[in-house]
């Protein structure tokens, strides 16, 4: 016959109850902390990747890539997310829109794959919902950020009409937008956002690691026999 275990004294019973409560609390915290931390980490990394081009442009080369002018264009130099300059003649059709609360216009340049995105001029009176006026017809020279049309927000609905426009000349099936006035390093907002997202991702990576370690320790503790000395 095996000897029966004597009942625990008041102090031992109290210590045992405290240990059980600590294990239960750790399980609840770990059960919530780990999935939340992993979700926040994934969200931060997703946003960081989405902000990647804007962050990279902060460090882009300050000397503009010259795309040429009428009769002497250099379309082999087209690259996404670079500072570039071009001179050209506007077509008679433009595409108006609103971007972050500001009225903007895309002006196609004749015999090029390029559209210039800029604010409206005083001669271009446009009200959303009304028929857009033709753009200012004067030749223009522009410096700014070069992006593929599909990467420019605010004009996605107009993309089919833009591609069908007579006078534009896509290169390898692509059209490009030169965002006037956007110079590398002038707007450090994307860099600040990137640093905040990086810090948030790092914090949640630490929390996820601690949560995983606590979960493994808790599972290991469950496998050990709960023995009391007699």
SSE diagram, text form:
Elements: H1 10-50, H2 52-58, E1 65-66, E2 68-69, E3 72-73, E4 82-88, E5 95-99, E6 102-108, E7 114-119, E8 140-148, H3 159-163, E9 176-180, H4 189-223
Parallel strand pairs: 1-4, 7-9
Antiparallel strand pairs: 2-3, 4-8, 5-6, 6-7, 8-9
- Order of H and E elements: HHEEEEEEEEHEH
Helix-strand category = alpha+beta
Low-confidence sequence ranges: none
Mean pLDDT: 83
Compute the number of structural domains. 2
Report what the structure shows.
The structure is a single chain. This protein is α+β, with helices and mostly antiparallel strands and 230 residues long. It folds into two domains: 10-52 and 189-223; 60-180, no CATH class. The chain has helices at 10-50, 52-58, 159-163, 189-223; strands at 65-66, 68-69, 72-73, 82-88, 95-99, 102-108, 114-119, 140-148, 176-180. The strands form two sheets. It has a seven-stranded mixed β-sheet with strand order 1-4-8-9-7-6-5, with no helix packed on it. A two-stranded antiparallel sheet has the order 2-3. Helix 1 packs antiparallel against helix 4.
Keywords:
about 230 residues, alpha+beta, 2 domains, two-stranded antiparallel ribbon
Concise overview:
It contains 4 helices and 9 strands; from the N terminus they run H-H-E-E-E-E-E-E-E-E-H-E-H. It is an alpha+beta fold and 230 residues long. A 7-stranded mixed beta sheet has the order 1-4-8-9-7-6-5, with no helix packed on it.
């Amino acid at each position: 016959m095996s000897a029966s275990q004597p009942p625990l004294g008041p102090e031992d019973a109290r210590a045992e109850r405290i240990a059980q409560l600590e294990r239960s609390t750790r399980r609840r915290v770990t059960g919530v902390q780990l999935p939340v931390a992993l979700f926040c980490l994934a969200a931060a990394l997703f946003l960081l990747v989405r902000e990647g081009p804007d962050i990279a442009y902060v460090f882009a080369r300050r000397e503009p890539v010259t795309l040429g002018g009428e009769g002497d264009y250099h379309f082999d130099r087209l690259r996404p997310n670079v500072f570039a300059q071009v001179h050209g003649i506007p077509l008679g059709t433009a595409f108006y829109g609103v971007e972050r609360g500001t009225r903007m216009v895309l002006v196609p340049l004749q015999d090029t794959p390029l559209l210039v995105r800029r604010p409206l001029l005083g001669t271009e009176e446009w009200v959303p919902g009304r028929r857009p006026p033709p753009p200012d017809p004067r030749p223009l020279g522009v410096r700014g950020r070069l992006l593929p049309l599909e990467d420019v927000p605010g004009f996605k609905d107009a993309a089919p009409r833009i591609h069908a426009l007579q006078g534009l000349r896509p290169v390898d099936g692509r059209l490009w937008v030169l965002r006037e006035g956007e110079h590398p390093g002038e707007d450090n907002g994307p860099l600040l956002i990137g640093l905040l997202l990086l810090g948030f991702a790092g914090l949640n990576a630490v929390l996820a690691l601690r949560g995983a370690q606590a979960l493994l320790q808790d599972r290991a503790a469950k496998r050990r026999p709960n023995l009391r000395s007699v």
